[in-house]
Write a structure and sequence with these properties.
Strand order of the largest sheet: 7-6-5-8-9
Structural class: alpha+beta
Number of strands: 10
CATH superfamily of the largest domain: SCP2 sterol-binding domain
CATH topology of the largest domain: Nonspecific Lipid-transfer Protein, Chain A
Strand content: 15-25%
Number of helices: 9
CATH class of the largest domain: Alpha Beta
C-alpha cells in the first residue's frame, strides 16, 4: 500500500485503512462476526472479486484480521477481526455519527442490505425506559432477520432471529428504520407497507439518541476568521556538536 510519508497519526492510520473498501470490510466483520469469503462478497455489493481478495490480504498483513480454515469435509477460509481490527469500531462509530446529515434521503441507485441495520441501531438508538424489563424486537426483511434489544438504557443489535420477540416488524428495513427513529408514526408505517406483529407498544422503548452533530461548534481560541499558518517540518535527528579543540 502507498504511504503518505508523514509522521502524523492520521496519515499513518490512513496508510493502513484509507484504501477503498477496507473500512466496509471491517463493518461486515463487526456486524456478522467471523465470515466466509462468499458472505463478505454478498455484504459488499459492487466490489470486484480480485479487489476483495487484495484487500483481505492487505488487511491480514496489517494485522487487522486473521484467516482461519474451517474443518473438513467442507473446508473453506473464514475471516475474523483481530483485537487490532475490532478497535476500529469506535472509528466507524464516529464516522457514522458524522455522516448522519448525509443520510436524510438515499440516492436513486443506493443499495441498503437488511443486516446493515445492526450498526446504526447500536449507534443511533437508545432505551427510553431503562428501569423497565428488557424488550426484544425482530425486524424481518425478506429472508433476513435482525434482532434489537432495549435493556438497561442501551440498545444492542445482532444478525439473526429473536427468541420470543415482544414485537416483529415485517417489511422493508429502511421503513422500519424510519419508524424506530420516530420519523414516521405507526399508522404511516403500516400505510407504507410495514406489518407489526405482537405488541406494538414494545416499539416505544426504542428512540433516537440526541443529534450530537447539530450542537453549536466551539469557537477557535484564536478568534473568528483568524488563520494560523505553519510550515511543514521534516523529522530529523538532532545535530551533534563538533568536539572543541
Amino acid at each position: 500500500m502507498r504511504s503518505y510519508g508523514q509522521f502524523c497519526g492520521l496519515a499513518k492510520s490512513l496508510d493502513v485503512i484509507g484504501d477503498r473498501w477496507t473500512l466496509l470490510i471491517v463493518r461486515e466483520l463487526l456486524i456478522r462476526g467471523p465470515s466466509r469469503y462468499t458472505d463478505l462478497r454478498i455484504g459488499l455489493p459492487g466490489i470486484p472479486t480480485n479487489l476483495l481478495a487484495d484487500r483481505l490480504r492487505d488487511m491480514e498483513e496489517a494485522g487487522l484480521l486473521r484467516r482461519d480454515m474451517s474443518p473438513a469435509p467442507a473446508a473453506a477460509a473464514g475471516y475474523a477481526l483481530t483485537p487490532r481490527g475490532e478497535a476500529l469500531e469506535t472509528v466507524i462509530a464516529a464516522l457514522g455519527r458524522w455522516a448522519a446529515p448525509l443520510l436524510e434521503a438515499p440516492a436513486k441507485d443506493d443499495v441498503f442490505l437488511p443486516h446493515w441495520l445492526v450498526l446504526p441501531a447500536r449507534l443511533y438508538l437508545t432505551d427510553r425506559a431503562p428501569r423497565k424489563p428488557p424488550v426484544r424486537i425482530e425486524v424481518r426483511d425478506r429472508d433476513e432477520r435482525v434482532t434489537l434489544e432495549a435493556a438497561n438504557g442501551r440498545v444492542t443489535a445482532r444478525v439473526g432471529p429473536a427468541d420470543q420477540p415482544d414485537a416483529v416488524i415485517i417489511g422493508p428495513t429502511p421503513l422500519a428504520w424510519q419508524l424506530l427513529l420516530a420519523k414516521i408514526d405507526l399508522a404511516h408505517a403500516r400505510k407504507a407497507g410495514l406489518a407489526i406483529e405482537g405488541k406494538p407498544a414494545a416499539l416505544k422503548r426504542f428512540g433516537p439518541l440526541p443529534r450530537q452533530w447539530e450542537r453549536e461548534p466551539q469557537r477557535s481560541p484564536v478568534g473568528r476568521g483568524a488563520r494560523v499558518r505553519s510550515s511543514p517540518q521534516r523529522i530529523s535527528r538532532p545535530r551533534q556538536r563538533a568536539p572543541s579543540r
